[in-house]
Amino acid sequence: MCGIIGMASKHEFGSNDIIKMLKRLEYRGYDSFGIVTDKGMMEKEVGEIKPVKENRCSMALAHCRWATHGGVTRENAHPHTDCTGNIFLVHNGIISNYQELKNKLVGHKFTSETDTEVIAHFFEESLKTNDIKSSVLEFFRIAQGEFAIVMMLKGDKNLYALKRGSPLSLGLLDDGNVLASDIYAFSDKTEKAIFFNEDEFAIMNKDGYEFYKFLDNMLKPVSKEITVVKWSGTEEKNHFDHYMIKEINEEPEVAERLINSLRTEQKPGLEKLKELIQGAKRIVFVASGSSYHAALLGVYFLNKAGVEAHAVIASEFRNFYLVDDKTLLIAVSQSGETMDVIEALHGMKAKGAKIASLVNVPYSTIQRMSNVSINIEAGQEICVAATKSFVNQVVALTYLASVFGYEKDFSKIPDEIRDVFSQEGKIKQLAKSLKGEKDIYIIGRGYLYPVAREIALKIKEISYIHAEGMMGGELKHGTLALIEEGTPVIALIDNKPEIISNVMEIKARGGRIIAVTNRDDERFQESIRISAHNKFPFSIEASIAGQLLTYYIAKEKGLPIDKVRNLAKSVTVK
Ligand code: F6R
Fold first, then answer.
1. Closest C-alpha to ligand 1, atom 3
2. Statement to judge: residues 400 and 469 lie in one domain
3. Of 186, 211, 291, 325, which one has the greatest count of Cβ atoms within 10 A?
4. What is the pTM of this model?
């Protein structure tokens, strides 16, 4: 959440060059954006990133915001500055003790409600009597929370960057250097990157950089390794109206790419993961949101293969899990930057647990923390909702289960995914009839329960309709009371007789059944046809049917789809 950029170059560049880079980070937050250059130009605006007034400069900072402290206003947009207007900074993270720090900054005039502005005033105060390194040292000592900060001082040739918790990387350009929240900001310009570790501070300018680590209450110089990174992604929507539908349409192709890579270049990684699983006393998946739903499916298929595993929601991990050095934690994360997951891993790594991961964004924090990491090969996902990454997480996890004997024919998967698109016309019609609903229920049993939850999450976040994904058998224990004449219930129906009983119970109370099924049954008033007869492809086809339904409901309602309200793609706060 929030994207930051700081660039210094030997050659002048335009303010809109930075804005273009910032656009590549827009998925991290799109409440407001801002830019400041060393030639004195500052612009901030609420809403999506747009071109700004052209200004030639040789250093600049930029930021896109996902609001945490303070509403979505121009005043709260970054960059923030101090009373003198000599210090500018952009920040990703939360300074949790900002109020305490603010109380000590007596006489300072604050113009925003943000925690970030406090940092600018802190440095204003500290730099009155200290040099920059001493001020940074003091900041590391007293600041609590998470931060990736890039700071520019008027008349100074350096940019100053600090990292604790939130991600930060440095790209080495032919004619300068750039700091950014992630490598995607600059991966079309350079393949050379340096990743900040915890509590690191860098002084960077057009000619070079120095790194320091805050350790034992001191700043100690450290040498850093340059990593060659390849992550091009794609920014084009092509002929599609939204990234969401483009990314759903990419699913057959990315699933095929993943399966091929698991059979070839990722085979050694998979073997290593197999060994870690075999050597562990306890296997726990840790994930959030859609990735958690994929993990639940993975657990189901691994259990079928005789491997005992559990899935735990990352934000609650510490409240539920006992971990020791015989535990293997498997993080599942599209972005590889989700703070709740990182927190869970950090705590447990300290207890000696081994870490494995399934990640989409290469070189991400979670991937770099892992003893072994499988890349899910979905490619850049721009829509805030996980679609193709979810499908590939499920493919990768089922492939892992197949290593333990849960045999499946993966070669048919791309075509089975393609089959879902034959239902697109019907799904569009259904979407029209559902767009005015206030509540939708989705039921599934066994492996279709995580799918029901995933469809519900998609409907909530993209179509703005309250939705609940439930185990079919649980309805009669309470929720059935909410079923009235016409209440829509999407039922995921394979060959289990029990789910039919649940459907009949709903119908008896006037509920409107929309079956997602591979069966012909005249009792279903409306249905979306699934071609698969086996569990794994059924789970994927049903999930995609849910993604398409969600997309077309949101389109009918004229909603923003790729950038829905209140959310951001990379959730880097707790
Ligand atoms: C929903 C969605 C989120 C993410 C969750 C975890 O469509 O995208 O629920 O799944 O925020 O994110 P990652 O997978 O990046 O850890």
1. 289
2. no
3. 291
4. 0.92
